[in-house]
Specification:
By secondary structure, the protein is α/β, with parallel strands linked by helices. It contains ten helices and eight strands.
Length: 265
């Protein structure tokens, strides 16, 4: 019997190396984690930020990672066992964190704030668990107009699957406004808020493989799964065609633009 590949496994195999590893390195560069610091990977997904910190920081203090998805945490734990870092993996809602007050020196959260149902509540909860003077570093996707990969994917899904599937991609860009972001952090009680629009050049050596994996590895994968093979192929090809300006022979190189927030508790 063939083992069913979960969304979390597809996400890890296709999207993490291309998108989330580069962003993890960028956020860690800005966060400057130090040996001995207690660090939280908030909405950790499959744990890429935690694994990168374990590679870069010689002697981190306690590493904790929280996510609401048991499937994501299952993959994260499996990869961490192979990589070796000692991590406290916790299934939790970002607005109800199971940590004591003043627990962490640093929290990093990539591409998740826009999905939190209670954004202000989650930021206030994060402030509670950060030590005074602790740092929070976030990246949040900017609008679709400056993110051609997401624009092409949404258009392909709209045309070949339907509006509901396309809406799953639009949700990734649902908090693009820098003023709204700043207001959220200020309302939560953060200080010294720095906000910058950052563009990373992301790449994959096989554009067709990335297109197939990305269409099946985001929130849209389950929606594609019910289509006949021919319809899936047409949707993937439409996505690839939408990225024509970013193709270099077989490879793909595209900008990925987010707002990066650095704030102090």
């Amino acid at each position: 019997m063939t083992k069913r590949i979960t969304f979390a496994e597809r996400y890890q195999s296709v999207l993490v190396p291309v998108i989330f590893e580069p962003w993890a390195r960028e956020l860690i560069r800005r966060a400057r984690p130090q040996s001995g610091e207690h660090i939280l990977d908030l909405a950790c997904g499959t744990g890429v930020v935690t694994r990168e910190i374990a590679k870069q920081v010689p002697e981190p203090g306690r590493l904790s990672a929280a996510d609401h998805s048991p499937d994501m945490l299952y993959v994260a734990r499996s990869l961490a066992r192979k990589a070796g870092p000692e991590v406290e993996w916790v299934e939790a809602d970002a607005a109800v964190l199971p940590f004591a007050d003043n627990s962490f020196d640093l929290a990093i959260c990539q591409q998740a704030l826009q999905f939190f149902p209670d954004k202000l509540g989650a930021l206030r909860e994060l402030l509670r668990v950060l030590k005074p003077g602790g740092r929070a570093v976030f990246c949040v996707q900017r609008e679709m107009a400056v993110n051609p990969m997401l624009q092409a994917q949404a258009a392909a899904l709209e045309a070949h699957v339907g509006a509901e599937a396309a809406a799953a991609v639009h949700a990734i860009c649902s908090l693009p406004d820098s003023s709204e972001l700043r207001d959220l952090f200020e309302a939560a009680g953060f200080r010294g808020i720095e906000l910058e629009s950052v563009s990373l050049e992301l790449e994959h050596p096989d554009a067709a493989a990335f297109a197939a994996g990305a269409m099946g590895g985001m929130h849209t994968g389950d929606k594609l799964a019910g289509l006949p093979d021919g319809a899936i192929d047409r949707a993937v090809q439409a996505f690839l065609t939408g990225l024509d300006d970013y193709l270099e022979a077989r490879s793909l190189r595209f900008p990925h633009v987010s707002n990066v927030v650095v704030a102090t508790a």
